[in-house]
User: What shape does this take?
Amino acid sequence: MKALFLACCVFVSQIIFAQSSIKLNTTFTDTNAGFNSTNFKISSSVKDSAEAFNNTKKLLNKIQSAGFAAASLDTFYCDSNNCFAQFFIGEKLNGFQLKNSNIENTFLSGTKQKLNRKKSVLTPKEINIVQQKILTNAENKGYPFAEVFLDSFKINPASANINIEKHELFLFDTLSIPQKVKVKKKFLSAYLGIKRNKPYDESKIKSIEQRLNALPFIEITHPHTVWFDKEKAKVELNIKDKKASVFNAFLGILPGGAGQKVLITGEAKINLYGMLGFGEQLNLEWNKTMPKTQVLKTMIAVPYLFGLPLGVDVRFELFKRDTAWLDLDGNYGVCYQFSGMNYLKASLKQKNTIVLKVDTTFIKQNQTLPNALDIKSNEFALEYYFMNLNYRFNPTTGWQLTAGGSVGAKSVKRNSLINNLMDEKRGETFSYLYDSIGKQNFQFSLWLSLDKFWKIHKRMTILTSLKAKYFYSALVFENEKYRIGGMNTLRGFTEESIITPYYGIANLEYRYLLSKNAFFFTFFNVGVVQQAASNKIDFPFGFGAGVSLETKIGVFGITYALGQKHNEKVSFKNSKIHFGYTNYF
Assistant: This one.
């Protein structure tokens, strides 16, 4: 065992040396009539010693699963042109009881129910699963060269002891990045979970490629390598800077209304990623959804502050609804970072609405307050975010989830114009209309966004998604409701033309990839909303197709969509066309 461990250390510490191709030679000892070596073949030509060692471990698992539970890898070593692996085989058994010999509880997670069970016989396959689970636990707790093996076999009753030889404890060393890049080592260390003097964790090594691919501002040039030397594991990342900041622009051509033949809508976004090397993100967004109506959004997020699993996320939104009202929304959050960019965020949400124009005629005629009022609200919110996508900008597999909720209270501010407006019938001002509204009104909201990508072919993928929001308050005003419709929510409808206190949107989309960042797509989406006039439930739906084309100066896209809701049937004259442009810099 000691000789094998030392040989493994030497081999692993040398895996970074380039080799064109080497031959893997396997031999088997203590075989019997039940063992046929032709059933356990592996490729004899491998690119390097690391691949050779991984192949021998896979072969050992296959042998043990076939019933040779006592099989082990006795010898493994390499020279310049060859690698040699010698396996001990032993007797083939149909099953027996396992007894824990020297394995600590910390390595037994997920296996305790199978060990030391009286009158319970495990099959070779079950035994192999137990061995692999213990080995995985050891590799994730600082023992990359641990060995799990069986001994002390007994025939009546059939039993064996399961043992572990941990070998040396290895700790992570500092990250090594040969090429000069903007991103800081401190950020990458926290992001990957590879921290100096923390026990080696094989699961973190296996997730390096996926997590690095999720970062928009770096690109992997070669696979990462790991050096084992003097009880230290040094991880080398072969990466370079990549253009990640994004400028997006959309132009919508929609059927007009109120004397307009055509309504032009627009949107522009600038997303800046990792400009300072700390994984930070700065977003600026402006859009014009209808005449005299504009939205401005800003966001800044900085994860892993000071190398700790804590980050900040601050957002601000200004919404001006023609000359009717102005919304000022703030969201000030602190994030606890899980693995990668996944987080749990606690935040304070604030909303202020300023009514710019009061419909005095409505108040006088209906003896009631208008649908939009001056309000101020404060809410405490929790939000969870998880992403597991193979490529952030145009994924083909994986999923991402955002789920959260908030609770708080709002107060209605008295408008001076309404306070001073005379009710000629009662001989007093309309300020009495505010008396029926409490000083503080309880409210809460829930939201969910789930996207799942299903790869069905090398160039084809299916996107299924669900988005939903719900807002509750005893009094819900027009300026508190959600605004949906358009490219970012329910396609086939005018931007933010559907006003509702709750909604759910399901989307099914087929994509055919033209390049890494471009694709042709068709879609169908359907929603559930509350009708503005009758408060009845409506099920608007939309469908269409589009394409994005990647060029040297950016990605150009066009989308054509049709939609139907309770008072609007599918009609080509109501079709929606959006042109888009994306540039990475």
User: Anything to note?
Assistant: The domain at 171-241 is CATH 3.10.20.310 (Ubiquitin-like (UB roll)). Confidence is low (pLDDT under 50) at residues 1-19.
